[in-house]
Design brief:
117 residues; mainly alpha; Serine Threonine Protein Phosphatase 5, Tetratricopeptide repeat; signal; DUF4810 domain-containing protein; UCP020555_TPR-like
């Protein structure tokens, strides 16, 4: 009897661990955009424009932009050599998600130091 109860509890825990709540944050078409960005270089610029538009419009809605999306946009911009714009998005990530503040602050500081050289 105890073994059955233990198996039921473990099964329930395992099943609930697999459930996600995609309704907490705005993701837009992040997965598709990321796939295209890395696998189809000829449309990178168009994907980046769409991605940045999503982030700009999503900030005006009640649900927050998902964690990491501001930083991802900053990284895309940094890859294009747009350091000042990248810093802006890293700062948004820093200000929006306290969990990332330490990392984002160090990244911003390093980029600003490089920019000053």
């Amino acid at each position: 009897m105890k073994l059955k109860l233990l198996l039921v509890v473990l099964g329930s825990l395992l099943a609930s661990a697999c459930v996600t709540n995609n309704n907490l944050y705005q993701w837009g078409n992040y997965e598709e955009a990321l796939f295209v960005y890395y696998h189809e270089p000829e449309v990178k610029e168009e994907i980046l424009i769409d991605y940045l538009e999503f982030i700009e419009t999503a900030q005006q809605k009640p649900k927050p932009v998902a964690p990491g999306l501001f930083a991802e946009a900053g990284t895309f911009l940094l890859e294009q050599g747009k350091r000042a714009e990248a810093i802006k998005f890293y700062q948004l990530e820093h200000d929006t998600w306290p969990e990332s503040q330490l990392f984002m602050a160090a990244l911003i500081r390093n980029l600003q130091t490089q920019q000053g050289q």
